[in-house]
Structure formats: C-alpha cells, structure tokens
Amino acid sequence: MDASAMLGLAIPLGLGIAAFGCGIGIGNAVSGAMNAMGRQPEAIGKIQTAMLIGAAFIEALTIYALVMGFVLMGKL
Amino acid sequence: MLALWLAEHHEEVAEAANGAHEAAGHAAEHSAGVPELPNLFGTIHHLLGGLAPKFTDSLDHLVASCKFNDPMGTPFSAFENILYALIVIGFLSWFFISGYLRRRKSPKDGPLSRRALFSEIVVLFFDDFFGQILGRKEGRKHLSFVGTLFIYILCCNCFGLVFLGKAPTANLSFNLGMAVLVFFYVHFTGISRSPLGYLKHYPGTLPTVKELGMGPAGVLLIGFMAILFTIIHVLEAVIQPVSLSLRLFGNVLGKDVLLGVFGSLMVIHISTGIAVAFPWHTPFLFLGLLLGAIQALIFSLLSAVYITLWLPHDEHHAEEHA
Questions:
Q1: Between chains, do B250 and A63 touch, taking CB under 8 Å as contact?
Q2: Which of A71, B26, B30, B214 is deepest in the core (most CB within 10 A)?
Q3: Contact (CB<8Å) B72/A56
Q4: What is the DSSP letter of B277?
C-alpha cells in the first residue's frame, strides 16, 4: 500500500472517528441544555448562548480533523 | 499602469518568480481535488487566460513572487478573497454610513427612513445580545467591535451563496487576520483595565504558604505552580485565536466544498467550452445560510467571552445581587 492510498483511507476514517466523538459530546451538551430549558423556560436565552458556546468548542475538534483532511488532500 | 509595468518587467518578474511559480504550480495541481463554484474574478482570470495568456501568466508570477499563495487554491484565488472582502466592506460602509447620514439629516420628530430604522434594529439587537454576556455597561463599550465582527463575517459568509460570489472567510489567512485582531483587542482591554491585574492573571490565584501547610518547602511548590499556570495561560492565549480562525475556516470551506461538489454533480457539455450544470446544490444554499449565521454568531460570541475573561469578576456578582 503506497502513501497516497493510505492517506485516502485515513482522511475519511479519521474524520469519521472525530465526528463520532464530537457527536456524542454535542448530544450530551444539547440534551443537558434541553433538560434545563424544559425545567426553566424563562432562562432559555441564557442557556441557549451557553450551549452554543460549548457546542462551538466541541465542534471545533471535528473541524480540526476536517482542515487536516483538506490540507492532506493535496498529497493524495 | 500595472499592465504596462508587467509588460516591461515581464522577463525580470518571470525569472525572480521562477522558484515560487513552481510551488504555485504544485498548489494549483493539488487544488484540482477541491471543487468550488465559479466566481466572478476567477472566471475573468480564466477567460483572460484564454485571450491574453501572457498577461495572466505575469499576473500569476507576480502573485506567486509575493508569497501570497492560498494553499487551497490557485495563486490567484488568494487575491479573489481580498477583492470580495473589499466589496463586502464597501457595501457595509455605504449602507450604514448613508443610513446614519440620512438619519442625521431627517427632521427631529419626522419619520425615520427605512434604512435608519433597520440599522437601529440591528444595533439594538446587538446591544441586547452582547449586554447579556458582557454586562450592560461593558457591552456598550465593546459593542462596536464585536457587532462589526458579526455583521462583517455574516455578510462574508453569505457572499459565498450569491451567484458568482465567493466567501472570503473560506481562507485561513483571512480568518487568522480577524482572529489576531480579536487577540490584540482582548489583551489591550485587559492591560488598559489594570496592568498589574493583567500580569496577575497569568500565575492565577495561588495558595499562600500557610494554607499549603508544608513549611518552607511550600515556597518551592508554589513557585512551580506559578510557572506551570503561566505556561498554561500563555498557551491558552495563543490557542484562542488559532481555534477561532480554524473553526470559521473549516466550516465555511466545508460548506463551499459541499456546494461545489453538488454543483458539479451533473454537468452537461453541449459543445466544446459550453456546459450547462443542473443546480443540485440549491437545497444546500439554505443550509449555508444557517451555517453562515451560526458561525458569525459563534465568532463574535467567543470574542465577547474572551473579553469577559479579562473583566473584573465582582461586577457580575453585583448584577446578580441587584
């Protein structure tokens, strides 16, 4: 197996693994936020902002894998 | 002027840029893997390449000699981003400045123009939104910076959805520029508030020797902790702008590539040089609209949060008790 074939296998696989973890993380965050919103509908605005910030941090991890994918795509 | 200069210095430029051009050529070869929708300046550049290849070649040489390459695209595409950003800046400046002038000109109790009203709604929305995060007084102070970031990034993102447009935010250097601006703004805010407090933030709140209860050995441990926390805080300060720019870049580029892939799914070549594409990417334009708004929100929101980290914390307690 040459390097480009390995890259072709590794980029989507790595992105999938990153997305798997981040999916679980964002799922946890959103479920917690939804619970909180259901319990306290008057605080929806504040909870939503905090949830968005957290989701942005989690999502950034997948984006790193995606960016690496774009960068390495040139070597395919 | 530029064309004349290029014609005169073509040989020199070509020689000087020989090495750089090779690298640029490689980048162009590689970028064939990343599909994107056609944009106005790229199309003009491409058409000019057919009509006057000497001119575009020298242009490419010039761009390549500037070491100004977009790693994701052709050497020229780095310039496209700047041109589109300038268009967005021009549009926004015209819109809001003329709205402001119109408002100033209108009689005091007369009705406001539509544009003035719209600008007012936008500013009030930001005032309310960032007031929640920064506090009402601080929010007013930083509103102009954070709100400008939001509007600017939103328009840049949405420009990628316009026909023959391109999102300048799909370029890492562009986003890094904005993120570095945020970095300097945040740290300037921290320093101007209290220089001593700014320096104190780096080692963090350390326990006293008495609290540690280890005698003289505790001094050594506290010193070690101070150094460790300082390193961590410096790292955090560096990582903040990098992650800020990478997040925006990855999201917008991902959206653009998605649009490009779906846009090029069914291209019918009628004859040589003439092709018709079926707009498969239309549903994803709405996704792009949503994504652009969310990314603009997150960029400005995180900048606001970074500013809050440097503000004195007792203010929030006072607000909570009030």
A1: yes
A2: B30
A3: no
A4: E
